[in-house]
Design goal:
single chain; alpha+beta; 7-stranded antiparallel β-sheet; 6-stranded parallel β-sheet
Amino acid sequence: MFEFLKINFESKANADAIIQNGPVRFTVLTPNLIRLEYDLSCTFEDRPTQVIWHRQFPTPKFNKTVDESTILIETSDLVIRYEINEFGFHADFLQITLKENQQTWFYGQENNTNLKGTVRTLDRVNGAIPLNPGLISRSGWALVDDSNSLVINREGWIECRSSPPGTKDLYFLGYGSNFTQCIIDFQKLSGRVPILPRFALGNWWSRYWAYHQDELLELMYDFKERDIPLSVCIVDMDWHIVDTGNESSGWTGYSWNPELFPDPESFIKELHQMGLKTALNLHPALGVYPHETGYEEMARRMGIDPKSQESIPFDIADPEFTKAYFEVLHYPLEDMGVDFWWLDWQQGTQTAIQGLDPLFWLNHLHFFNRARDGATRPFIFSRWGGLGSQRYPIGFSGDTYVTWDTLQFQPYFTATAANVGYGWWSHDIGGHMGGVEEPELFTRWVQYGVFSPIFRMHCTNNPYHERRPWGYDAETERITTQAMQLRHALIPYLYTAAWKNYKEGILPIRPMYHPYPHDESAYQCPNQYTFGSELIAAPFTTPRDEDTRLSRNIVWLPEGDWFDFFTDEYFSGGGWYAVYGDLHRIPVFAKAGAIIPLCPSLGRASIELPDTLTINIFPGADNNFTLYEDDGETLAYQDGKYALTNFMLQWEDNESVFTIDPVIGEKDLLSSNRIFKLIFHAIKAPDNIQVRINGKDIEISKNYNYETEQLILSDIVLSVDEQLKVGIRGPNRFCSKGNRKKESILNMLKTFKMNSYIKQALDFRIDQLINNPGILLEFADRMSDSHILALVETWLGRQDEKIISDPEEALQKIINTLYHSK
């Protein structure tokens, strides 16, 4: 019935990975991943479940000993011991020891060190909420109980298990501190994250508002005229009839509202001509009522006399209803040009099949149905349906409140979802409802959105909410416009991150303890995260201080050299910084050797591959970055139809070589020639620059800026078959690691709300202040506490111990520092 549901599962494990003794079965999937089953019927379950799809792993090396009383299994990382008994799994009879830390798990043991995962939704959340358990913990283990998960039959439909009561189907993940490998292997077990369509990584507009089609199109042109790039225009529920004239509340709908959308085909066509994709909001829970254009056909297919005007209940667990649901209600709209669906399911967790959550099943069905032609890249927008939901990107986090507390929770929430392999949350940028609308809060939310997985503005239909960048004031418009232009420019970088997620299982956004599990500091900075392979983001999520007019954030940078992505300021890693910033600043740090490709900040890069690229190169270390590109919208990438461009930096103390290799793969996807601009950040003035294409010297535009310490090489025309090599020779210690304390403090003084005479006096003694911050005590009675804190924390720079987050507590420590220095 559903060809699109016949997925290539590899759910049966290799026979040589299985150890069975009566009702107990162990399967060694990896040295760290063990399936534990107890089934009195001894039939066991080899079909795919809602969570687990692929058990056919290469069998790892392991030793086993089975005698009358004991089963002992030893891998390179785990020791599993089971005492054979008539009661099955019990703490006295089943233990697993991790060799890395000698932690022993006993069956039934609680895990109090779990690092958490994510939740279904943030609907009506104001601030922080508890999260569900994740797949990693400080103790090194986690347990997935799949015992109650439904199974998928040969037809691809869902059904209950036939196992007897008391059956256990567990997965023990004993990866110790190797969190990255744990999440990689879980995706192999549960299902890989597909590559998102390229358009998904640009800027989205969405609002719950009864737009007329002309009004919404005019708004899209307003964005374009103001040079604010968009890639998606969502149409919320007022696209369909809401005043139904019958018992339906209008929350569910499948028929265009002719008063607001008199010509929906031309509306969608015009959006597409503007380079925008579109989705319609969908609340399917109320079923189908007689006012719908598809009612008669739906009624006939469900065995209901259309003349009866009887409503058709929503029953996604019924294959017949599901078939009609797609063919009658959705296909005509997709034929009209709807690109994907916003599945806004909020109506419970029960269906006619016991244990089947309609959210999970809707996500599964809509995702694979969208690819039914074998070519279209599937994509949905919906809430998290539980473990395994990484297979169906992207996530809609729900309707949150417009508050600073909500914004402050979102970086932690988003990064922590990586602990269940879920990397593509989309939040309502600016918040959804309630709260107090403030230009600063909106600006900070937009800046966070730039460095979040998906950038999507949204709010409810209260006219006092505002999401247009120009709806506040000139400063807000300027800053948020620049931020959204940057987000657009980041599409090549983000799209490569999406490919790495698919190919390697490395998520685009991760908590700091994923790449740095052995550093205790990595567990103490919940609101910062890795953003792709090259950057760490720590966006401001609290309001500016009234006296300093600056925001403050406590940031940990791992060992190594780091550079401010925007200003090139150098930071020595292995410690903590108090980072201050005005409304323009976003704390984002590039690692030594970082290579970050950007496309033009305007244009159609969300749907077309750019002809021009700017490559940002940071000094200090060797590095490789491989840019991934494909057609952006089909499944051809699964057959190897994509292009790879490798960038390589070779760094030495007084010279560097940067190479762009010829394109590998489907070169026809790209223009035959591309124009490159190379920006070498934070380097001292070079003595010699040599640029070669295929070994031959060429002349190009070269400009070194002594103020910014950047070398810019422009207008490099390179064909897909050519290799570029740029050799730069400079003085010893070529990398610029200049101390900018003086510059930073003087800039702070300009921003401070402070008596101008005091500013002048501090400026006059700035060199003394840099050498001895105790001088500030002479001005203490004419400065606020926050002034003193900001100046001294900036003077201190890197600190080995975590800096106190609370400003009042931090100040007491600072005062002691001042007296000591004086």
